Amino acid sequence: MQETSDEKRFYSDKLKHAIHLLLFKRGKMPGAKEWELKASLGKNYKEVVKQLDTLLSDFDLQVKKVEPERPQNRPLAEGPLEESTDDARYFLTLRGTLTPKEARLSGWRIDNLAALTVAIAYIVTKQGKAPREEIEKLLAEKAGRWKTLTLLDAFTRNGYLKEDEAGSMSLGWRTSSEVNLRDLMTLLAETGR
Amino acid sequence: MTSSNPKPERVRLASGRKDLRELIQTCEAIREHKFNPFFLDVALAIETLRKYFPFWGSLDDHCLDAQTINDLAEVLNLQKSQLRYQSSALYTAPEMLDKKLRTLSVKRLGEIFLKSWHPIVEREQLTVEGAREGLRYWDEMLSFEERRKRLHLGRPAPPTPTDLDSLVKSGIMTREDFAKNLRRLWEELQTQTKESGSVDYWSFVRRDNYQETVQRAYYVSFLLTYGFAKMARDSTGMKLAWVETPTGKVAQGMVSYPIAIPRKSEPEVVQGTSM
After folding, report:
1. Average pLDDT of every residue of chain B
2. CATH at A175
3. What is the 8-class DSSP label of residue B124?
4. Which of A3, A184, B27, B61 could be B71's S-S partner, Cβ–Cβ 3.0 to 4.6 Å?
5. Of B43, B69, B86, which residue sits at a domain end?
6. Which residue range(s) make up the domain with B76?
7. Distance between CA atoms of B166 and B185, rounded to whole angstroms?
8. Is residue B66 within 8 Å of residue A93, measured between CB atoms?
9. Is the Cα torsion angle B11, B15, B17, B20 positive or negative in sign?
10. Contact A62/B118, CB-based, under 8 Å?
11. First to last CA, chain B
């Protein structure tokens, strides 16, 4: 009996520490690297993270793991954690989605989100890389020339897109972490049928 | 190739190098996503390489051959990626999607994004480490004088007293002060309205000099705001009337009324006033 109680207490402390690590931003990027979790929570950090993920589901939140070499995110519920690398990053994300009214809470206007949709979808159709001028041209049709330039810079600054020296744009770390590309492309394909 | 027939060999080598360079350029364009990877017929490219390979003699030619093979391998890799992508759920025909992105409304596009968006929950705060870093930066930062020295600007000029002439020249002050100008205009309005009780706004404000017109309109707006004059509209235009006993205070319920001051062959300037 005593043992069970100790075990619960042990997990409770670790859970608190885990949520602190995941929620509070310390560097440029939010979340925590796998090695940070391992160093702070001990060797059973995966169990702690899994338990936290279960607890957070009541609040419509989830722990998401993003591996650097994998472009698509993977909610914990979808698979085991055994193949993880120390470079993987864990984030707290919304489990469900926002309604158009709630979208204002994110700080992005609906027309800016529409522009982001166009940019992401275009890059996906170009298999992950597209010249900036082409995206600008496409966006300018809806948003206007000057707003397009500002928006693309904002998307890049926030990590949704990234631009290389040759002027090609690709999907940034935040898109990989926050956007379910499969859902996005399916919805776009279905719309208008 | 034998030495008994040197001319055809030279021709073949030159055209072979040209073909290989064209292949390399095409591969580069594909790598930069300018063309579809399937734009290049790899089998035909390999056949071209095979055709010229027996004739290469110099190191440069063999390097060119190796580079072409390397670039073709990359194109093959891109073809593989495209096939894999097309067989995945992410694939949508680019032409169809392009049309949709152009035709769907902004609202609909935003809604689609929201259905696939799971934003990160994060909390920004000042940490102990962040505060320490800030303090460290502040301690290590050179004084203003030191930083100025780095720019080789020399010592800044010491402050000196200024006079009315330089203030007037820089537009900070006028020779006549504001209250005096207002009084002068108020008295002028009194003179002009003595007989008829009112005067046309434009005939009172407008002068040959545009700058002076704007200046008079600016002062008139103060006369109206503080109850030194009244403005009313009749069938002939806007009329200004002199007030004998001004309140000197902003009257309740006044509304701001913009009046455009057109200038011949120049854009209009809008002057705000209160009524």
Report:
1. 81
2. 1.10.10.10
3. -
4. B27
5. B86
6. 6-86
7. 26
8. no
9. negative
10. yes
11. 101
- Say whether B115 and A94 touch across the interface (CB within 8 A): no
Contacts with B, A 39-68, CB within 8 Å: 61-62, 64
| Neighbour tally for A25: CB within 10 Å | 15
pTM of the model: 0.54
**Token code pair at residue B134:** 């800030």
CA distance A105 to A114: 16
Residue A177 is encoded by which pair of tokens?
Answer: 């972490």
Q: Which range marks the domain in which residue A129 is found?
A: 102-190
Neighbours of A160 (CB within 10 A): 22
> Which is nearest to B54 in space by CA: B13, B6, B8, B4?
B13
B91 to chain A: which residues are within 8 Å by CB? 185
Structure-block tokens of residue B28: 């580069």
Q: pLDDT, tens digit, for every residue of B48-85?
A: 999 888 888 899 999 999 999 999 999 998 888 877 77
- The pLDDT of residue A81: 46
Q: Which of A91, A127, A182 sits opposite B82 (nearest CB)?
A: A127
- Asked if B240 and B231 count as a contact pair (C-beta separation under 8 A), the reply is yes
The ipTM (two decimal places) reads 0.85
